[in-house]
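Session log. Operator J.P. requested a structure for one protein chain; no other inputs attached. Running the standard single-chain path with C-alpha cell output.
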Amino acid sequence: MSRAVGIVGSAESGVRGDFRTDIAVVGGGASGTLTAVHLLRSGVGGVVVFEAEAGRRHRGVAYGTTDPRHLLNVRAQVMSAFPEEPGHFVEWARGAGYAVGPEDFVPRMVFGHYLRSLVAQFGDGRLSVVTARVEDVVADGAGFTLSTVDTTTRAASVVFAYGNHAPRRLATAAGPLPDAAWHAPNPWDLDTLTAVPEDATVVLVGSGLTAADTAITLLDDAPRRRVLMVSRHGELPRTHVARTLTNWVSPVPPLGPLTADGLAELICNQVAAAARQGVNWRAVVDGLRGCTQSMWARLDLHERRRFLAAHSRDWDVHRHRMAPGVAARIRAYRDSGQLSLHGGGLQWVEDVGARCRVGLDGVALDADAVVHCTGPLTDVAQTTDPLLRRLIDRGTVAPDPLGLGLACTPDGRLLDRTGSIASGMYTVGPPRKGALWESIAVPEIRDQAAQLAQHLVSVPAA
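Structure written below.
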C-alpha cells in the first residue's frame, strides 16, 4: 500500500495551506534528502518537503559549495546513496560527464548535484516542495501537527534529519565577537571570503577540514594574502594516501563492557602490528569503521566521557582525513609562508574599525578578517533553533547526555525528557552521534535512511 509522506526541510515552492501526510522529515540537506530518496524508493505515495533555506535544498552546507577545489574527504567509491549499489555514485558521475574513478576525491559540489539528481529521478510527481521553517511540532493522540508560518501539516510520524547546526557564536574570555565587518561567522559564504583584500591577513579559528577548504578559497587565487589557522591544539587532519591501502581487519574485543583506554590501547597495538607487516596505520583506522558503532555501544556513559576527554581528538584527526589534493595545497601554502598554524586558541580580539587586533598564543597581529571554522554545535541543550528549543523546553525530546546530539536509541527512536521512547519520532544522521559515534558521514547516513524507510513504510497508515 502506498503512503503519502511529508518531508520538512528540502527545497522551495510557494505552496501554502494545510497538508495531511503519514511521515514528516525535519531537515533538507544531505540527511533529509537521503531519507526522502529512500522513502520514495520504498514506494511511498508522495513527499512534501519544507526547507527554510532554499540554498541548502537537497545538498546541505558542505555539498552546496560552488568552489570546485573543495573536495570530498573520502573516495568516490564509498559515496553511493544506496548500500546495495556501491558503484551508483561513480556510475552516475560518469554518465553526467564527470571523469570520475572509484578512488578519486571529487569536488563536493558534484556530490551535491548527485543528490539533486536523485530527487529528480525518484520524485516522479510525488514530491512537493515548500520553503518554510517548521516552527513547532505538537503530539496528540493521532500523531503530530507541524506548523510553519503559512502551513499546518498533520503526520503520523516525524523524522528529524536536520544535519549539523552552525557552530556556537565565536567568543573569547572577553565575550562574543561583535557583528563587525571583519567578523565572518560563515566559512561557506564564498562571496564574503573572496571579497577580502588581495593582500589581507585572515585568521581562521579552527584547523579542521572546513578550515582547510576556507584556506584554499582565500589563498589559491591571491598569493599576497596571509592566513593564520588557530585552534586549541594546532593540529591539522592527517592525509589520505593517493591509492587504496592494504586491507587490515583488527580483532574485535571479546563480548562485554569495554573501556575507552582499552580501545585506545587496542588501536595503538594494531597500528604497531600493521607497521611490522609493512601496512600503513590508515588501513587500521579504516578497517575499524565497520565495528566502531558496536564498540561504542559497549562503552558505558562514564567510559564514553573518558573517550571524549582523552582520545577523541586523536581519533578525529586520523579518522577524518584530507584528500591528497587538499593536503598538497595546504602544504604548499605553509612552505611559501602564506599559511601558518597556531595552537593555544584565540586569546582575544579587539575591534579597531574596519580591521581588528587579534591575540594568539604569544602573538598579536592586525587582521582584515576573522573566519569561524570550528566544528558544528552538537550540544542541543545550547541550541538557539526555535523548533528544537521549544521541543526541549517542553520535554518532547531531550539532549544527548554527552552533548553530541539528541537522546535516542541506536536505531534512531527519539527519547523524551524522562528517557522514554517518544513514539512516532525518529532521527537520522548527526543527531544520532551520541548513540552511535560514527553517524556523520554519508555511508552511515545512507544506511540509517534505508533502514528507517523500510521501518516506516511497514507501519500501517493512520
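Operator note: The longest strand covers residues 421-427.
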